[in-house]
Specification:
heterodimer, A: about 200 residues, mainly alpha, B: mainly alpha, Cytochrome Bc1 Complex, Chain D, domain 2, 3 domains, three-stranded mixed beta sheet, about 50% helix, globular
Chain lengths: ~200, ~300
């Protein structure tokens, strides 16, 4: 046996030993365990554990900042995927928007998939001042239009942000309501109206 | 007879407290108008006072909810689950007609006192890390001769299902009341479980891109009016973990920690977390270890 072969064999053994001693599992091991720990139920199938590129990155950098270049890439890719309304109109009916903002129904395995989903905006945001039961995970959206102005640019921004929050802030906690087909385009327009209609309680 | 009387008494007290709490909430809300109704028009000049009024009412609501929670803590129906769990622990059951009195929860056969405060942990006989529920399944199989399917069947209570599991959980956990959480990580499999649990905690997925961390990795945030503990930080993790299991007034059931995880994932829009699955135990390991040093104080009572 040549010296080189002995050396290679030795390296392989030490590599194996090192591997056996490392307590932290590889990410795939954790994924494997995770996938074996859930089961399909109703509309919530196992494929919901799969991640697109953005969520893979956001999970990897959950406790450290996402590198700037990577964040820009996620934002650009998600921005490209937003189909802004062909008619250029962003505002629907703010009254319908208020109902959508209140409703947390939808997409859970206990929900009937035939019914439309809500946006559950109040879970995280302050909107109409009459609703005291609002969450603080997101920023306050009270007087959204009044503060920013009722311009088409802001309306377009509101539509895009609700449609796909990752296009504006990589790894934002906010769901991608349009991109992931939680809400329809018409529902998102109603929410834009809740934020942008001067008559909406949000702007009073 | 006696337990029936206690049940009636506690049920009546709870109902009264729920009514009290609801009227307090209704009062707090009605002072500022119905929440879902569209706003009456307000002149711009009045914007500031309106805002101050809203903040004041919001604080009043939070105060009333706190009062309601305090009132609840007085008579906890979880006692009934504990008593039933103690009976079930000592009862000869299953194909082998054996009790669970020789069940080893980590401190030796039959030692219940303080056992929950050191779970999950690695068990040699199964070569696995087990939390309380999975360990109870193991004991029901090994000592009493149940099949795994029987031991795990329908583990969460409902009006027509009162599983032994939740009663046993109440009994065992109550025996750690006042004990400091002390979950070890010496065994490589315990360490592995912690790391897998941590990875699971941060995994974003589903239609809403949610992970556990979406709600539970920041300080001082709320979902609607509900405070959300930062489970990555010692103090809030201790406060949250040591308060489970809990009797949920709104559901009339005692809820185990496995249920807590199951229902969080449902709301996360994930598929169903399987009862006592390896992932569920790993996540429990991560959360329990983060709570080390906290004084265990459950079963508690929650809205």
């Amino acid at each position: 046996m040549s010296k080189t072969r002995v050396l290679i064999a030795g390296l392989m053994v030490s590599a194996l030993c090192a591997n056996a001693q490392t307590p932290a599992p590889k990410p795939d091991r954790a994924l494997e365990v995770m996938k074996s720990s859930f089961k399909d139920r109703g509309q919530a199938k196992l494929d919901r554990l799969n991640q697109d590129k953005a969520m893979e990155v956001c999970t990897k950098y959950a406790t450290t900042p996402v590198p700037k270049a990577l964040a820009k890439q996620i934002e650009a890719e998600n921005m490209k995927a937003i189909p802004f309304p062909a008619d250029g109109k962003y505002l629907g009916d703010w009254r319908a928007g208020e109902r959508i903002a209140q409703s947390g129904v939808g997409m859970q395995f206990t929900d009937n998939p035939a019914n439309p989903s809500g946006g559950n905006c109040y879970a995280c945001h302050k909107l109409s001042p009459q609703e005291l039961s609002y969450g603080t995970i997101g920023t306050s959206l009270y007087q959204f239009g009044k503060i920013r102005g009722y311009s088409p640019e802001i309306a377009k921004y509101a539509f895009g942000k609700i449609y796909n929050a990752q296009a504006y802030t990589a790894c934002s906690n906010m769901p991608r309501f349009g991109h992931n087909k939680i809400l329809t385009e018409a529902q998102i327009k109603d929410l834009v109206a809740l934020l942008m209609d001067p008559e909406s309680p949000v702007n009073k | 007879m006696r337990s029936e009387r206690i049940l009636t008494c506690i049920t009546a007290t709870t109902a009264a407290l729920v009514l009290l709490g609801m009227s307090a909430l209704a009062q707090a809300q009605s002072s500022s108008g119905a929440p879902a109704k569209p706003a009456p028009k307000a002149a711009p000049a009045k914007a500031a006072p309106v805002k101050a009024e809203a903040t004041r009412s919001s604080n009043a609501t939070v105060r009333e909810i706190e009062k309601y929670r305090e009132a609840l803590a007085d008579g906890n129906p979880a006692d009934l689950w504990e008593a039933r769990g103690e009976d079930l622990w000592k009862q000869k059951r299953g194909p082998k007609m054996a009790s669970l009195e020789q069940c080893d929860l980590g401190l030796g056969p039959g030692k219940v006192k303080g056992a929950y405060a050191q779970l999950p942990r690695y068990f040699e006989d199964t070569d696995k890390v087990e939390d309380l529920e999975s360990r109870l399944v193991t004991c029901m199989v090994m000592l009493q001769g149940f099949t795994y399917d029987q031991a795990k069947r329908a583990p969460f209570g409902s009006p027509d299902n009162k599983p032994a599991m939740e009663a046993l959980v109440a009994y065992v956990t109550a025996n750690s009341r006042g004990v400091k959480m002390n979950v070890g990580m010496k065994h490589p499999k315990e360490k592995e479980a912690y790391e897998i649990g941590k990875r699971l905690f941060f995994h974003r997925g589903g239609p809403h891109d949610f992970s556990c961390a979406t709600c539970h990795a920041q300080d001082d945030i709320r979902i609607r009016l509900q405070d959300l503990p930062n489970l990555t930080k010692k103090e809030p993790a201790q406060r949250a973990y040591t308060a489970w299991p809990a009797y949920r007034v709104s559901q009339g059931e005692l809820r185990s920690f496995q249920w807590r995880l199951f229902d969080c994932f449902r709301q996360q829009r994930f598929p169903e977390l399987e009862f006592t699955s390896q992932g569920s135990v790993a996540l429990t390991m991560f959360l329990a270890h983060n709570a080390n040093g906290g004084t265990y104080n459950a079963p508690s009572i929650k809205r």
